[in-house]
Amino acid sequence: MDATTTAQRAAGVPAADATRPEEVPWGSVWGQPAAVETLRAAASDPSGPAHAWLITGPPGSGRSTLAHAFAAALIAEPGDERAVHQVLSGTHPDLTALRTEGVIISIKDARALVERSYFAPSLGRYRVIVVEDADRMAERTSNVLLKALEEPPERTVWVLCAPSDADLLPTIRSRVRTLRLIDPEIADVAALIARRTGVDPALAEQSARHAQRHIGMAQRLATDDAARARRDETLRAVLGVRSIGDVVEVAGRIVQIATDDAKALVAERDEAERASLLRTLGVAEGAPVPPAVRSQLSALDEEHKRRATRSLRDGLDRVLTDLQSLYRDVLMAQFRRGDLINRELDAEIQALAAAWTTERTLVVLDRIAETRRNLEQNVAPALALESMLVTVASGRTP
């Protein structure tokens, strides 16, 4: 359980632009005015807010940022900016935030959340439990939360976040109030990225388009040359698949690219956490680790392995999302409608659209979606990708 995750880190973007005092805590939320007004009204309702909420929206829409802003509005007394900043930084004692570093949320973590939910608020108006990856709960784990959602303490509010309400069990959905976020426009995301990072507007637009409006990913593409290069390499490699030999080679390259990307995302954080733990334990830099503290380092190493596994799975999912955008473009070219996401590959897309039937393009899109589901079920990445690429090469499902 990570109770120190900030709202900005949860959304995958840095702190928002400077806000006026009257905007606290909502100034960190971007592009969701209707959702902000709904939650602002709920937080100030004299009769109290609904006891459980589900915030849904596409990746990068700011679900977690909004959840933490809502938590700050619930916990802090009006005008208490110190408490607001404590909640937003994850240090307030009445906030418990869970963002799993693994592939799924464990039953152990869910039980700890339920236990915490029955504590009375220590300083604030409410105790708030934020579950940032509620879609990563298996059925058994979801069932652990049911009773707490059915009969919550009077001053506890649950806030769950997921891409869609369909990602949760019906029994969970029936016990929460759902708030659906809107998908921002590409031009709006591009303007935000250009303002925050100072990159050229054309690069900001390209990054927003390639990220398909995912704010955090758009910012990374705009500011990381290597990330842009890896994306381009992956798409061009798949476009070049023609034979079974190509299938095996390209599947291996995709896994390696995703692995490198995952390492780039977590390596610096892992090293900082290890160094911080050693300092806390009184171990000087470069000194041997005493046997008495090795178990704590081993536990941290295990956490890092789980994080690396999740980061790799997320990286592969991003690759497949990019491939879906590519073959969506092919389909749009075949129907001669819609703007292309991958305009930089227009010549290749038009050639493929002329060579393939629409039925073959749809088969490939279905196969990519199936591969995403298979990877969620822990199918070996290389085998899943090889099977998908056979369909790309042949137009037929193996």
Verbal overview:
- The protein is an alpha/beta fold and 398 residues long.
- Helix content is 59%, strand content 6%.
- It has a five-stranded parallel beta sheet with strand order 2-3-4-1-5, with helices on both faces.
- Helix 5 links the parallel strand 2 and strand 3.
- Helix 10 packs across helix 11.
Nutshell version of this structure?
This protein is α/β, with parallel strands linked by helices. It contains 16 helices and five strands. It has three domains: 7-180, P-loop containing nucleotide triphosphate hydrolases (Rossmann fold); 186-223; 244-394, no CATH class.
Q: Could you say what the CATH architecture of the largest domain is?
A: 3-Layer(aba) Sandwich
How much strand content do the residues show? 5-15%
User: On the 0-100 scale, what is the average pLDDT?
Assistant: 85
| SSE series | HHEHHEHEHEHEHHHHHHHHH
Q: Could you please say which CATH topology of the largest domain applies here?
A: Rossmann fold
Low-confidence stretches: 1-22
CATH superfamily of the largest domain: P-loop containing nucleotide triphosphate hydrolases
Q: Which value, in Å, is the CA radius of gyration?
A: 23 Å
The rounded distance between the terminal residues' Cα atoms is 41 Å
Q: State the helicity in percent bands.
A: 55-70%
Global shape: globular
**Secondary-structure content class:** alpha/beta
Widest sheet, order of strands? 2-3-4-1-5
Compute the number of strand runs: 5
Question: Regarding CATH, which class of the largest domain?
Answer: Alpha Beta
**Largest sheet, strands/sense/barrel:** 5 strands, parallel
